[in-house]
Amino acid sequence: SAVISQKPSRDICQRGTSLTIQCQVDSQVTMMFWYRQQPGQSLTLIATANQGSEATYESGFVIDKFPISRPNLTFSTLTVSNMSPEDSSIYLCSVGGAGNQPQHFGDGTRLSIL
Amino acid sequence: QQQVKQSPQSLIVQKGGISIINCAYENTAFDYFPWYQQFPGKGPALLIAIRPDVSEKKEGRFTISFNKSAKQFSLHIMDSQPGDSATYFCAASGQRTNAGKSTFGDGTTLTVKP
What we know:
The complex is a heterodimer. Chain A is mostly beta strands. Chain A is built from no helices and eleven strands. Chain A has strands at residues 4-7, 10-13, 19-25, 31-37, 43-50, 56-57, 68-72, 75-80, 89-96, 103-105, 109-113. Chain B is an all-beta fold. In chain B, the strands form two sheets. In chain B, strands 2, 4, 5, 9, 10 and 11 form a six-stranded mixed beta sheet that branches. Chain B is globular, with a radius of gyration of 14 Å.
């Protein structure tokens, strides 16, 4: 199974600032997924990042707020822009899931906005 | 529209007891049903999964029961241990639905008391 490393593991940020989260996978993958998990809640897909094309965003998420980069087949970044307290959450990177295969997740970035 | 409904939201079981978590789905195009286990500070990890061509799958103390006609599946944890205390998510996906992306239940927080 894929090993996924996310950085930072946690951060406390000021309102109005932006934070970029990095996701590194130990193997080449076509699709990478970014999820948000609010406290005590389920996983909400933010976007799918394909290498060499624009990310595909789910309803309720926009590129201006969550810009994504996918420079190669093992790396992606998610930026949370102009943060507000409502953005306090866990952000998870994931790969897999295609062809009825399980998804593999990083350990997440725990973000708190003051 | 939530396509996977999970219950209960939380569950407390005595050590040695049986933990049962239920999920129901709506989309008949789903054909892969995994369960994920998430410990605090970690990302979700695959626990066990089933495809609809079988009614039950067992791995150690963990069993998935699947009822295709009722569109329901459940996770049974036999001889529950304090180390099983975690959040459990059911999920569903299909190769021809939602581009193969998983739909997650809301999660069940399991506490096993010693």
